[in-house]
Amino acid sequence: MNYTATKTNFAHAIGQQVTATVSGVMNKLRRAHQYRVTLAELQRLDDRELNDLNLSYADLPSVALNAVYNR
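User: That's the sequence. What structure does it adopt?
Assistant: Structure tokens below.
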């Protein structure tokens, strides 16, 4: 009986690790997608709009990173 309980606990622990890993990967993929979408939206702004925001095209990747990853 003790062997079965240990085996079940081990399987449960492995399942939790797999779930956590998959969840982490999915979160990274969602954020990477959101970064690409945000950057694409910013890149659609014209020079006048960027100037109104006091930004240049060179600033856009860091602005997108900050928006998505709070960096």
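The CA atoms of residues 46 and 57 lie 9 Å apart.
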